[in-house]
Amino acid sequence: MKKQDFIKAVANAANLSQDAAGKSLNAIIEIVTKELKKGGEVNITGFGAFKVSSRAKRNGVNPKTGAKIVIPAMKSPVFRAGKTL
Questions:
Q1: Neighbouring residues of 31: CB distance < 8 A, sequence distance ≥ 6
Q2: Residue 6: HSE in the Cβ half-sphere, 13 Å Cα cutoff
Q3: Which of 54, 68, 75, 83 lies 20 to 30 Å from 38, alpha-carbon distance?
Q4: How far apart are CA 58 and CA 13, in angstroms?
Q5: What is the reported pLDDT for 27?
Q6: Beta strands 48-55 and 58-61: pairing type?
Q7: From CA 62, how far away is CA 13, in angstroms rounded?
């Protein structure tokens, strides 16, 4: 399902216009993104939790050349599904 299909489904299920459903979805995405950038966590009971996970520096191999490289430490977003999902 693509974003536009999701917006149509939400609009139909909630008796909203597609414009209102699209604005709501964009607001939710923006809020979750801002919270994760701050290092916070967003818990939605019954659905799941969005949080930031830290990955340690590690060694890797460039598949094209076979050269060994160092992959730097980084933070990445993680979603953990809730029990009811």
A1: 42
A2: 8
A3: 83
A4: 46
A5: 97
A6: unpaired
A7: 47
How many C-beta atoms lie closer than 10 Å to residue 39's C-beta?
Answer: 10
> Helix, strand, or coil here: 67?
coil
Alpha-carbon gap, residue 28 to 47, rounded angstroms: 14
Whole-number Å distance between alpha carbons of 83 and 70: 37
CB-CB contact of 42 with 15 (8 Å): no
Strand residues in 30-73 grouped as ranges (E)? 42-44, 48-55, 58-61, 68-71
What is each CA distance from 42 to 9, 10, 13, 48, in whole angstroms? 23, 21, 24, 8
Return the pLDDT at 5.
Answer: 96
Q: Tell me: the pLDDT tens digits for 16-71? A: 999 999 999 999 999 999 999 999 999 999 999 999 999 999 999 999 999 999 99
Looking at residue 58, its amino acid is R
pTM of the predicted model as reported, rounded to 2 decimal places: 0.78
